[in-house]
Write a structure and sequence with these properties.
four-stranded antiparallel β-sheet; Four Helix Bundle (Hemerythrin (Met), subunit A); 2 domains; alpha/beta; single chain; about 375 residues
Amino acid sequence: MCGVTPYDSGHMGHAFTFLMFDVLVRFFEAGGTRVKYVQNVTDVDDPLFERARRDGVDWRELADRETKVHVRDMTVLGWRPPDKMPRVSDEIPRIVSAATRLQTSGHAYKTDALYFDTSTYPEFGRLSHRSRRSMLRKLREEELLGTVGPGAKHDALDFTLWRGSRPDEPAWPSKFGAGRPGWHIECSVMAMRYLGPQIDIHGGGRDLVFSHHESERAQSESLTGKSPFSQAWVHTGMVRYQGRKMSKSLGNLVKVSQALQRAPAAALRLYLVSHRYRSDWNFEWAGLTRAARFIERMRKLLADEARAKRPKRAPGRALMAEFNAALADDLDTPRAVRALRAAVRQKDVAAVQAMREVLLGTAALS
């Protein structure tokens, strides 16, 4: 999956996305499926360089610090660590090689930068279900439209594979000139290196569908000649706070560290996974408080059982069937949480423990 761009990590939007993928991985593994989980770190990208420039720090120092914050927060929230967390800065030679192959095969051209030629990929727009007009509007809104014309890109939808660097940005040698990769090619190369030319599940936040994943799909399938690049795409909804999308630009972030001052890690995790993965929702402190009360009831139940030292019993079949059916139904975590609540009410400790491992991971109850 597409991981963090490490310049301001650790807020609820990040945690929601990564915990949903964590539940998905844990559900597969609980059912006996072996999962190879890759989550990249985009440490070569415009927002990171802009923040480093603003704060007067080295981009590598900023990336290292924020990546550590991300790993720390997710560890506290009980994640199953990815098998691989590749960084763009370590993958530059492979990215240059991929960009070269795209140019050689006629899918890219060089003017003021190296661009992917979207006219060579007729399905561009199919993943996001956007018309050309809609795609252009989105690029314009995000100030990513760029310049079209002689000495620039041929079409407004074409996107950068390699570009020159500013004086205060890192640059690597390439046949296209010293510079750095575009955002989209970075993720394609890392995904294909660690998972192969075709992968089972790919995703991230819903805001990545266009233009990032649309572009990633186009260049990946053009590189390999194999379709589909990903069998399934999983995109999480946006987390709002005080009625607006939680974002760095609006300054309305709720950090994981802030929430953990009010509730245990398991309560925060339970609150986040109580929402449908692909729906937008509003973060509310009262919801976190309710989750903390339930976690305390569950903690007491498990502690009482441990003291009683009763023989272990199998979990109730009906409860586990409902729990598994919920997660098998497009990862319906709210329904799975209701099954966990029912297991606590019925004091089915075995079912509670089995469900906890999937929904809450190793997050501390207190």
